[in-house]
Design brief:
Layout: H1 2-41, H2 44-75, H3 80-114, H4 123-147, H5 150-180, H6 185-217, H7 226-232
Helix pairs in contact: 1-2, 1-3, 1-4, 2-3, 3-6, 4-5, 4-6, 5-6, 5-7
Amino acid sequence: MPGDHSSKAYDMDLETIRSKVLTMGGLVESQFNDAMECFRGGDVVKAEQVIKSDENVNRLEVTLDDACSHLIVKRQPAANDLRTVMATLKVITDLERIGDEATKIARTAKHLHERGTVGVLNHYELVRVLASNAAASLHDALDAFARLDEKQAARIIAADETIDHEFRSITRAMVTFMMEDPRTISAALDTLWVAKAVERIGDHAKNIAEYVIYIVEGKDIRHTDYVYTKLDSKV
């Protein structure tokens, strides 16, 4: 009975942490979407709100890191339980970094519109597809973490190549614009800065998906061809 009681207490503590992690995920997802809206429409006031909201994300990171540390000390989880806590800590870190990237986008949007460079390039349309794919990956990664769905996680990891390809295409387009018309240099660099931030958000979503697989299967699949093998086998 004491062991059963301890296990239930651990499960309750971990579920509380997971719930707060998903709340943090919702915050950074909104932060990213709002930042892209600022980049599209030039809402400087909203950009300031996005930048300010990063403080909430940072506070959540500190709170959740502390909660995970206390859980390890208090419950002394072993094997699979410890693996879950450690992976959750990594998810928290990636979410905080997504918030940082969203803040970069908001700052760039603010500066772009304050300088009056809107219209030199259709900057939003150049990154629209990339941003849509990254936002979908982030949403699906949070969903996979909530449900511990390793199959969905595998699909997210495989889809990251599409995001990388789109980023490379944007880079080539920006170089062409700058070479053909020096007046576009400032706006092109702004667009590249945003595109890189979006691409990094896709990378962090991929990381979260990898942690889901680590929790479920106990495999560290970073820098491996695990996903392609998994998809080929239709598991």
